Structures are given as structure tokens and as C-alpha cells.
Amino acid sequence: KNFQGKSMLYRSNLIKTSQRCYSSGSRLNAFIKSKLMSAEDIAEKLPEKVTLGASGFTPAGYPKVVPGAFARRIENSKNPEKFSINLYTGASTGDELDGVLARTGRLKLRIPYQSHPDIRSLINKGKLNYIDMHLSHVSKYIREGIFPSIDVAVIEACDVTADGRIYLTNSSGMSATYLALAKDIYIELNEAHPLEMKGLHDIYLPELHTGRPINIDYVDDRIGKSYSRTRIKIIIC
């Protein structure tokens, strides 16, 4: 019980720290400054009917401010019933994503995994379509058009470069797929994570229908890149 209390306190402080860091100038190069917007301005840009691909794998690496701003936009709307959200992630996420969007009552589809009580309540009441599936199938199903295509990707990153390199924080999940397929991309730049994380990931999207194995034989093999890259317009908060 004492450990759980300390864990919750640490998480609370980390969230406060990450929210403060969005306005820090320590990592804001000229390119990032040219793309900066507030979470509220980004929320206003999101379509009323949206398929949203978000970073995150368990409560790690998920966006924490844009979903809340979007939820407030819905709640303050004169016609909240106009909104409809399909939410794709890597797995379950925290309350700042799964919880705030679930409480709007406008979630219509959730994949591929969840563990949030508010989402579970909607599923059990028949108010939310949920597909519980293995993460390894999600990218293929989206890329083949079996699931609705991605309108918007909201991804947490520790750094973004002018040539479109997006360095993720402490999860990879489905982020590379969402970045590759989304029509619009919004990045939450979280400076609570050190730049040393830029070498953490090995990001690789295999071709469809090749049947070839992924060429990893040893635990230290790397076949991809440490970043995702996109030429699509990026907006950063």
C-alpha cells in the first residue's frame, strides 16, 4: 500500500512536470517554434467525426494534453452529439487519454486493448464498440483498409527535427503506423524525457504480403531506425 501511494505520487508529479515542459525553451529550435500551437488550438482543428491514432503502450508515451483539450471542446459544445471518435492506440493508456475521451460519451470504436474503468463501463453497457485483438494484427488491418483509415495522429515525442524525424518517448506501440498513415499529425513535445531516449527505439514497418521473416536473430540486432519520419505537415504543442 505504501509503495502504491508513492507510485501514484510519482506519476502525479511526472504529469505536472511534463505539462510544464511544453512551454520550456530549452529544446525549441527554430523549426519547432515555427510549428508550435497550444493544445486548445489543436483541439479546435480536430474533425468532429475523427479516427484518432494515438501513441502509447500501457500508461507510457501517450499524449496527455491534446485529448483533454478535445474533451473540453466536446463538453462545451452546444451539440456534443455531433462528435464521434474512433480511438486507436498501442494498448491501454492513462486517464489523460482513455478516461477523458470516454467521459465525453462520444467514443464509438476502441482498439486494440484497454483497461480503463470508464471505457469498460461503456463497453459493458453496449455504448462502445470494442475489438480486443493482438497488437501484431492492427497495423496490417489498418493498412489493408479493414479498419477505418487514420484521420489524425497525436504522438508524444522527445524531439522533432526539421527533416521530419520524430523521436518517440518511452513507448513505440503503433506510433510508426499512425504517423505513416494519418492525414494530419500533431506532436506533444514532452521535455520531461531526456534527449538520450533518441537511440532507444528500433522502428521498422514490414512490407505487406511478403511472407518473409523479419531479420532479427540476436537480442542486439537492429533492422530499423531510431525515429519515425514523415513529410506530412506537423503541428507541435
UniProtKB/TrEMBL annotation:
Biological processes, Gene Ontology terms: acetate metabolic process
Highest taxon, organism lineage: Eukaryota
Acetyl-CoA hydrolase/transferase N-terminal domain sequence ranges: 35-198
Reactions this protein catalyses: acetyl-CoA + H2O = acetate + CoA + H(+)
Pfam families according to UniProt: AcetylCoA_hydro
GO molecular function: acetate CoA-transferase activity; acetyl-CoA hydrolase activity
Entries under SUPFAM superfamilies matching the protein: NagB/RpiA/CoA transferase-like
EC number: 3.1.2.1
Name this polypeptide is given: Acetyl-CoA hydrolase
